[in-house]
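Project outcomes to date are best conveyed with an example. Our students and postdoctoral researchers have been running inverse folding experiments weekly, and each run begins with a structure described purely in tokens. The record below, which covers 286 residues, was selected by the lab manager from last quarter's runs and is presented without edits.
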């Protein structure tokens, strides 16, 4: 049976902005760097690549992280450019440097949503060096981001889990920080990226069952291991998004992950929900 595929978590980043030590980690052992570099600069080539792999849509994830990754605010334009050219194929995520002081957070979020027309916003606590609930300790940027996105029903994705990149602070990746966010912003569509990988799977699972507005994407987890970490995955199929984290270390191709996922003993209804229906509901076409 053919299934519609939406990869809710991939990266097409301006590699020239990466810190050298981060670029080294991303490049290590890859045999497809020429192709990746081509897709980063040529949207048509990337769409052709998706066609070859049978992928209907992808969410392109970007966010500022000047201290750890090297990305400044201009990174937000990367996904928006691809989405503007292929709105039926690209879901564009961006973000703001939520740890930065003395910015007009409300105006900046409105710029991301009104000018760039981003489909979702991303917070990466280990790379932005701040907890998802830091507003409880006085951060003034996060309340603006959460409240505006809640009002407009724009999904917010939060990285949960560890990071291998130099300078990252993995302690901020604990999904439990998002429990406060879900309580304080109960209508905000909240996506736990990577489902707490690899230390906090149980926490992520608890949160998506506790909160009606919380989802998790399965990116960055080898599909063959999903039922080991989430033996009750079928029961939460309506709260999970398929994702790969391509081209992060260890992810060979989007299609390879799809094929491994399809080998899991899940019902066709669960497969449809995870592979596309949940993402299409959160990010409706048109």
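After processing, the design step wrote out the following sequence:
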């Amino acid at each position: 049976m053919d299934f519609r595929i939406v990869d809710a978590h991939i990266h097409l980043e301006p590699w020239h902005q990466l810190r050298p030590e981060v670029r080294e980690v991303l490049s290590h052992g890859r045999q497809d760097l020429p192709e990746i570099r081509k897709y980063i600069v040529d949207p048509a080539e990337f769409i052709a690549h998706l066609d070859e792999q049978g992928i209907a849509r992808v969410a392109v994830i970007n966010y500022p992280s000047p201290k750890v990754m090297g990305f400044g605010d201009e990174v937000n334009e990367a996904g928006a450019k691809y989405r503007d050219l292929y709105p039926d194929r690209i879901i564009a995520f961006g973000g703001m440097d939520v740890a930065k002081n003395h910015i007009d957070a409300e105006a900046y979020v409105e710029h991301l949503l009104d000018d760039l027309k981003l489909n979702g916003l991303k917070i990466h606590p280990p790379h932005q060096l701040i907890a998802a609930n830091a507003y409880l300790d006085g951060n003034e940027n996060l309340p603006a981001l959460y409240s505006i996105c809640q009002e407009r029903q724009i999904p917010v994705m939060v990285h949960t889990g560890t990071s291998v990149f130099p300078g990252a602070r993995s302690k901020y990746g604990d999904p439990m920080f998002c429990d406060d966010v879900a309580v304080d912003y109960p209508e905000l569509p909240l996506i736990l990226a990577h489902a707490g990988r690899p230390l906090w799977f149980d926490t992520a699972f608890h949160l998506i069952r506790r909160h009606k507005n919380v989802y998790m994407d399965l990116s960055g987890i080898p599909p063959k291991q999903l039922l080991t970490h989430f033996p009750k995955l079928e029961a939460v199929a309506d709260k999970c998004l398929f994702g790969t984290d391509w081209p992060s270390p260890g992810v060979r191709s989007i299609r390879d992950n799809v094929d491994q996922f399809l080998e899991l003993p899940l019902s066709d209804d669960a497969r449809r929900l995870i592979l596309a229906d949940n993402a299409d509901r959160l990010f409706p076409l048109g």
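The chain has one domain: 6-282. Strands lie at 6-10, 57-60, 90-94, 120-123, 156-159, 190-193, 214-217, 240-241. The training component of this project remains on track.
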